Amino acid sequence: MDVTFESFAELVFHLDHPPPSELPAGINGQRPPLSPARIFRSWISHLPSPLPAKTTAHVFRLLFPHEGNRRRYGLRETQLAAELESVLAVEGLTHWDAAPETTRSNISIAEVDALLDELAAHSDFSQLSQTPIALRPPSTILRCLYRDAGLSPRAMAVLTQVILRDLRPLLYPLALIHARHPTLLLGVPASAGPTQLGLHEAMWAWEPAMARLFRDGKGCMEWCAAASETVKDDYVVSAGPVLNVNVQIPKCVKGRSVRDALKGFIGKDCRSVWAETKYDGYRLILAALGLTIGSAHPMPRPRISARRTEVTSVILEAEVVPYNEGDREGGRGPGIEEFWRLQAAGVSSAMNPSLPLRLRHLCLVFFDILHLNGKSLIDSAYLERRRLLERVVHHIEGFSLLATRAEIPLHLGTAHAEEVLGKVFQQSCQRREGLVLKADESVYVDTQLRWVKLKKDYIPNVGDCVDLVLLGAGWDIDRAHELRVDTSVYTTFYVGTLTNREGVTKHRQVPHFEFLFAVSYGMTRDQLELYNANIRLRRWATKPFDRDDKWKRSQLMTAVRAALAAIAKNISKIRAVMGRGT
């Protein structure tokens, strides 16, 4: 028996309104709510058995609609509202006296999933758009979902958020307060809302094999969902990443200082930590089967042929950086250039037209290996992975490099380790983005010995110095959901810099500002409330584009008066001449 979409909508409702647990009451006299994992497991236990094939994929696509690129609909709030108005408005008015449905909709999650696939195939940004199938118009598909399916209002709300690829407004709604005001909203801590159900946590509750596959390097939810249904008690799926399947990349811990970066390794029975250079580029995972090594560039071809390595399959991690074989700006000679030299399809030489294009190209800086000749290296120590990486990757200057690193010995004491790391970090700040600390004994996804990223941007009072100006403020949907605030709160600030300072100060030119970046993080709730109040109460001076400029007005009025005086003088002369002529 199929799982109905109404049943899934009830799951979303209970995750939003968790019932109280059996734990003793707290200081406030209320028992703590059930955890989202327990609610999810309870819902699973009430599902019909056995479940139809592909139920796992159907459930996780609906519960985590933002994961992956399989379905993108090209519909945001405004466009979807317009579509639903045409689908619902007229028919809803003409059937205003129809008796309400007393039975629940029986449309299954499999049927809804198929209709959503068909709807997503209309968007060029969706993977399903590449599937050659005959498509019905989006309005017809939406009518099937919103009218013909007979869904309840609660299920329609869930369906709408699935199409918007964001269930958070239903799973973690705003706090119940008597008025919508930035001060009131920011006064409620984000932790006051329901606990979130994470993807990995949901996988463990649904099928532990799915979670293990995802954790072991197969970071594609779709692939893990399909594979977990084939797992039997007497069948073991090979661990580790496989070719053509996304790898789940571990997140680094931010090091706020040299001492803070090392504290995660002290007392963990590791002798050495390696400070690996963090390059400023695009992260790339390369997967290849049956490699044939070669190059169209005339320079590296003979070196590659001379050092060919027999590799049947491999998955490598690298950073894509721009490389200049000529003379870099400032007379620095050949080497890796700044990040902004990178373009979507390569490296542009537009900033220096005199430099031949052939001297600028992409370079790969390799820093990890996850799979080699059919064997997973996810559970291998960093020491072993680096050794294999050095055997597989051949150094070809300007094209293929290994990430540089420095050893930080821990067995000589904490003070000595901090001194060594401080010197290495200082040298790195002069040339590269920062460092990533990795212990010799750490595996790829290690919960005990996690990678630590150390950048000058993370350390207070350290970093690049530039005069910046606040150009505007706005609302970011992701940051707003994290803060649990509505659109009345400014969550994001747009920062730029003055590009013609000398012209403004010396020649009274119109100031020209260039936008650089947006800032959504780093501010406490109290600071954010203060900034919102400063904008709302006009404590911060604002200058809209259409506001009149007093200086310009005075200059303009002077010019107008001079012009009028000249015209009047000329008119009087004309009258005098005409008078003499008569």
Automatic annotation (TrEMBL):
<dbReference type="InterPro" id="IPR036599">
    <property type="entry name" value="DNA_ligase_N_sf"/>
</dbReference>
<keyword id="KW-0547">Nucleotide-binding</keyword>
<dbReference type="GO" id="GO:0005524">
    <property type="term" value="F:ATP binding"/>
</dbReference>
<dbReference type="GO" id="GO:0003910">
    <property type="term" value="F:DNA ligase (ATP) activity"/>
</dbReference>
<dbReference type="Pfam" id="PF01068">
    <property type="entry name" value="DNA_ligase_A_M"/>
</dbReference>
<dbReference type="InterPro" id="IPR012340">
    <property type="entry name" value="NA-bd_OB-fold"/>
</dbReference>
<dbReference type="GO" id="GO:0006303">
    <property type="term" value="P:double-strand break repair via nonhomologous end joining"/>
</dbReference>
<dbReference type="GO" id="GO:0032807">
    <property type="term" value="C:DNA ligase IV complex"/>
</dbReference>
<keyword id="KW-0436">Ligase</keyword>
<dbReference type="GO" id="GO:0006310">
    <property type="term" value="P:DNA recombination"/>
</dbReference>
<dbReference type="GO" id="GO:0006297">
    <property type="term" value="P:nucleotide-excision repair, DNA gap filling"/>
</dbReference>
<dbReference type="InterPro" id="IPR012310">
    <property type="entry name" value="DNA_ligase_ATP-dep_cent"/>
</dbReference>
<dbReference type="InterPro" id="IPR029710">
    <property type="entry name" value="LIG4"/>
</dbReference>
<keyword id="KW-0067">ATP-binding</keyword>
<feature type="domain" description="ATP-dependent DNA ligase family profile">
    <location>
        <begin position="362"/>
        <end position="499"/>
    </location>
</feature>
<dbReference type="GO" id="GO:0003677">
    <property type="term" value="F:DNA binding"/>
</dbReference>
<protein>
    <recommendedName>
        <fullName>ATP-dependent DNA ligase family profile domain-containing protein</fullName>
    </recommendedName>
</protein>
